[in-house]
Amino acid sequence: MYPERLKRAREAAGLSLRALAEQVGVSQTAIKKYEDGVNTPDSSQLIKLAKALSVRGEYFFRPFTIQLDKTVEYRKRANTPEKLLKQIRADVEEQAERWHELANLYPQFPVKPFAVPTGLPATVQTLDEVEQVAAKVRECWKLGEDPITDLVDVLEEHGILVIFTALNTESKFDGLAATIKTQPVIVVAQHWAGDRQRFTLAHELGHLMLHGRLAEEIGEEKACNRFAGAFLLPATAIQRQLGQQRRTLEWQELYMLKHEFGLSMAACLYRSSDTAIISPDVTKSLYQQFAIRGWRKQEPKAPYPQEQTLVFKQLVYRALAEGWIGESKAAELLGIPLSRFHHERKLEGTDAVTDQ
Predict the structure, then answer these.
(1) pTM of the model as a whole
(2) CATH class of the structural domain 66-309
(3) DSSP SS3 for 122
């Protein structure tokens, strides 16, 4: 048994030493000794631990190979508790470890390595230059100026691992950027509306593209917000939609932009200001009205559809079809019971494709 796995699973479940001890029927000290490798639980205790932590028994015996780097960038509120951050980190490391294990099963893994596009400036002095970086990335990735309909697919196509965490983080966490064995990882909260997920994904992409390039006087979070807006809704695209200069905007215009480009109405409003379509005074006035209507918490009408990733699941089934893994390993990689995997493999049930 690898004792580090017990600690990771406990943190991913959001349980304290005492809480896990109560569920398993042992002392808090016993759990601590298991995690420190001083003692090893017997088979009956392992079964109880696995059940309490919602993991398969073999989980505790897999080599402990993946850890996030030390420079994790979180998009979170200042009051996000440390317990929640540990829970997120453990959940992400577990998912990333399954990615790494799957990659090692392939003779030649069909996901290309990440590389920063060539031609980006060594130093970025202004927010307008951040816009230029976003435009250069779109150009290098051959995205044109049209809406990016599937941002997750674009990121994964260029070697960026995207992980959705289903943890109940309320409003305290949006996403994070990190590196695992030189591979960039972007994590986003699964429960947010699609436009918020997309902004977080683009914001974290900004961290990857702007890292080490920003002048000291430019705040990195502000720069990454600007990058996200410019990447999802280029200046030329919004000016084509709204015109070069306007006295004011209609709410329906922002709503339609939201559903065409996958960016919130509020972000579209700020993009109108960033690109000088409306003046700062008009922006302030419209945003005040926006807040009065209660749209800061929930924007009107239909939400933008959520993003999702299918690449990992597709690659698991591909490995199964090629005979590189069996059903038990496929179920383990997908993190689901073998009985459920049998149903999904046969396309029995409505969640056979979309459920993660």
Answers:
(1) 0.79
(2) mainly alpha
(3) coil
